[in-house]
Amino acid sequence: MNSLSGSTHSVEEKIIKFLEETEEDFLSLWKESIILREDDIFKDRVSGNGHQMYLLVKKSLKSSIKDEEIKELAYKVAKERVLSKSNIGEFVYNVNVGRSTVIKYIIKSGISINDLQPIIDQINDHFDRYCYHAVTRYTELKDIEIKEKMVFVNQSHKDRLSLLGQMSSSFVHEFRNPLTSVMGFVKLLKNENPALKYMDTIEHELDQLKFRITQFLHASKLEVADKNKEEILVKKLFDEITAFLYPSIVDGDVKLSMTIDPTCTIVAVKDEIKQVLVNIILNSIDALKHNNSIDRKLCIKSEVRQESILFNITNNGPEIPEETKEAIFEPFYTTKSLGTGIGLYVCKSLIEKHNGTIYCESYKNKTSFIITLPINEKKPTVD
């Protein structure tokens, strides 16, 4: 902005002279009033930056200053604020302290307020532009910093998942074959000796072990092949799952209720969708064990919404904290002492591979996992 012309030149000259005479007092008062942390690595430069802005204000009273001059100082300070990990609010506060202090000083110059008003407007304009450029640059640098951190975090996750994949391959190879043999011999024993005690329990525990092994396998190889997809009757799928988990439901003293559309179908990889639902239900049962009341409820509902089907799995266990609800779907995040932190991550990945969504809602005594999947328009005949 150009300096004032004509009769106002003498006003500007008086203000400049006054500011030069009170410069040390101004900077001392400003420094006493600002927020400056002891651990700020650039605290020794703050006074110099304030002085530079002070000089720019004086220069603007003599002649116009280019926006690039303001921007250059603003960018320099923004970079220092980012590197010092300071709060941008502190910077804005300090700038406004400088603004108000300058204006207070020129008001004391003895010049009438009518003559000062255009000068005050001009000073406010310079401070506004300075603050705008600094905050904008600060935000840009912070975004770059966050993106760089996310690249590192994502690469770290990829590295860990790669390692997990190698471990899973070895794990599955070493354990799946003997496990399959053991499960086969248990079935033979059960057929030949139907009255033999504990066989159902042994068979169930082996099925659970097989499920956990498969979970590790999916954590490293999350692919959905169209050729493996099939039309699945949702009611039948949940009947299979609850039969599989019946011992866990009884052991947890859980009251299960289901409201499932008997005609609804989806097209999906059955084993993978089954794994997701089993994992969510098992997690719900685990959560209910922390509910000391005798009324432990697990409610499963399905609801058709246009081209999608919505599954709602709700328990009345403890509330999941707000800051935890998103993190639970991240790999290796767990609140369990012996948890792996891959269960919900695998669930989310498999659901998204099926073009669906999964999220969590949690309140006092009510936690829900909501899953949506594309629905198949064709409905099979129900026997």
TrEMBL record:
Q: Which InterPro entries match?
A: HATPase_C_sf, HATPase_dom, His_kinase_dom, HisK_dim/P_dom, HisK_dim/P_sf, Histidine_kinase_N, Sig_transdc_His_kin-like_C
Matching CDD domains, A to Z? Answer: GS_BA2291-HK-like, HATPase, HisKA
Keyword terms of this UniProt record: ATP-binding, Kinase, Nucleotide-binding, Phosphoprotein, Transferase, Two-component regulatory system
| Histidine kinase domain sequence ranges | 170-377
The answer on whether this UniProt entry bears the keyword Protein biosynthesis reads: no
Gene3D superfamilies referenced in this protein's UniProt entry, alphabetically: 1.10.287.130, Histidine kinase N-terminal domain, Histidine kinase-like ATPase, C-terminal domain
What name does UniProt use for this protein? histidine kinase
Q: Which organism is it from?
A: Metabacillus endolithicus
The record lists the lineage as: Bacteria, Bacillati, Bacillota, Bacilli, Bacillales
